[in-house]
Design a protein that fits this description.
- With 420 residues, this protein is an alpha+beta fold.
- It has a single domain, classed as Cytochrome P450 (Cytochrome p450, Orthogonal Bundle), CATH 1.10.630.
- The protein is built from 19 helices and 12 strands.
- The protein has a 5-stranded mixed beta sheet. Strands 4-12-11 form a 3-stranded antiparallel beta sheet.
- A hairpin with a 2-residue loop joins strand 8 and strand 9.
- The longest helix has 32 residues.
- It is globular, with a radius of gyration of 21 Å.
- It starts with a helix and ends with a strand.
- Belongs to the cytochrome P450 family.
- One of its GO terms (molecular function) is oxidoreductase activity, acting on paired donors, with incorporation or reduction of molecular oxygen.
- This is Cytochrome P450 PksS.
- Keywords: Heme, Iron, Metal-binding, Monooxygenase, Oxidoreductase.
- Pfam families: p450 (PF00067).
């Protein structure tokens, strides 16, 4: 069920319980729904369908409640086995992946406590500011090349022809994927990113091929290290402790499925927001130095990461007076927290110079996004270049004809046809 913003604000709450928050039509404008919840039901149960199973999830929508949720890693855990009863585990979707896919459950977003701390210390050694900064020139070249091709045609799909190739080239080079394999790597990555749009079973061949290829690449870097992120992950060590192959593979998968996809959505949805707010577009064009706060505001405003990744109640607890049973799925709605009038002045206004912008778009606490510096760099370069060079940037279709991707956690467009 999808309603107009005004209808969300007046419909009975019992009606809103049937809202499919993963639907593309909902993703187009979820903000009225979240505003209603903040005002009348700040902790609200909805039913999600994950891996063809229904699961109740509690949406937490007010800024300060989401903030507390993200910081409390004792009451809210990432690994469902640390929260659910045996019966809950049997019924829960995605908790018993087949053998080849178990590697995907060993990453930073799936573990808690000492295991998480160990992994994060090791990964931090590889994902340094220096590593990110050396991608600046490559990102700029990718943005310029993509725009050169688009401007020769006079039109483009800003998702497939700009927002996607820029971070894809960067992440491939950052990981150390050889140029000769870039075409295969691109195809696998696009398949992984589109999992939320279709039957996940259709992506199984791509996932298996990707994991097999990456295992070979990790083995190669163990014997012949290069100046790349996989090599840095291979040699990262703390008190004689190092990452095993499965942990490295899980980190690579996380970078692609979480970090890379959110950057694509930030660039694409950010470009749309600028087109729809010509005063702010011109403001940035006349003051390019505004690009850093502009990207922070676009993260807040367009919500490329709409919800936090899954957390489970480690014990019976209450949020805003609402009882949540042990083992149940709890989701901090970042898109809602970042539009909360209790935290942001005129929250539904795009203000590229917004001061004190303490948005939660990259999360917070122990699960704060490790890829945030890279996402910021890529978005600053891509959007800054687009605004500077595309002086006649405009939509090629009506805004209500745009299609938003179905999915959970992230929010992004399928296509963004523009004239340049």
């Amino acid at each position: 069920m999808t309603l107009a913003t005004a209808d969300y604000l007046t419909a009975p709450l019992t009606t809103l319980a049937g809202t499919d928050i993963t639907a593309g039509t909902f993703k187009a404008n979820p903000f009225g729904f979240y505003q209603r919840l903040r005002e009348d039901a700040p902790v609200f149960p909805v039913t999600l369908r994950i891996a063809n199973r229904a699961q109740r999830a509690w949406l937490v929508t007010r800024y300060h409640d989401v903030l507390a949720l993200l910081k409390d890693d004792e009451s809210f855990v990432k690994n469902p086995r640390n929260a659910m009863t045996p019966e809950q585990l049997r019924k829960a979707p995605g908790t018993n992946l087949p053998g080849p896919f178990k590697v995907l459950q060993t990453g930073l977003l799936s573990i808690d406590g000492a295991a998480h701390d160990r992994l994060k210390v090791l990964v931090h050694q590889a994902f340094t500011p220096r590593t990110v900064e050396r991608m600046r020139g490559l990102a700029q070249q990718a943005a310029d090349d993509a725009l050169d091709a688009a401007q020769r045609r006079g039109s483009a799909d800003l998702i497939s022809e700009f927002a996607l190739p820029v971070p894809l080239l960067v992440i491939g080079r950052l990981l150390g994927v050889p140029d000769k394999d870039h075409k295969r790597f691109s195809a696998w990555t696009r398949a992984l990113i589109s999992i939320g749009d279709r039957n996940p079973l259709l992506a199984v061949p791509s996932i298996l091929s990707f994991l097999s290829y990456m295992r070979r690449l990790v083995r190669d870097r163990r014997t012949s290290p290069q100046n790349d992120l996989i090599s840095a992950l291979v040699i990262a060590q703390e008190k004689q402790d190092a990452l095993n192959d499965d942990e490295i593979l899980s980190m690579i998968f996380l970078l692609l499925s979480a970090g890379h996809e959110t950057t694509v959505n930030l660039i694409g949805s950010g470009a749309l927001a600028l087109i729809q707010h010509p005063d702010q577009l011109e403001r940035l064009r006349s003051d390019p130095a505004l690009i850093k706060p502009a990207v922070e505001e676009l993260v807040r405003f367009v919500a490329p990461v709409e919800q936090s990744t899954e957390r489970y109640a480690a014990h019976d607890l209450q949020i805003a007076g609402v009882h949540i049973p042990k083992g149940e799925l709890v989701i901090g709605v970042l898109a809602s927290a970042n539009r909360d009038a209790a935290q942001f002045e005129q929250p539904n206004t795009l203000d590229l110079g917004r001061a004190n912008n303490r948005h939660l778009g990259f999360g917070l606490g122990m699960h704060y996004c490790l890829g945030a510096p890279l996402a910021r760099l890529e978005a600053q370069i891509a959007l800054g270049t687009l605004v500077d060079r595309a002086s006649n940037l405009q939509l090629a279709v009506r805004a209500d004809r745009l299609t938003w991707r179905r999915g959970f956690v992230v929010r992004g467009l399928e296509r963004l046809p523009v004239m340049l």
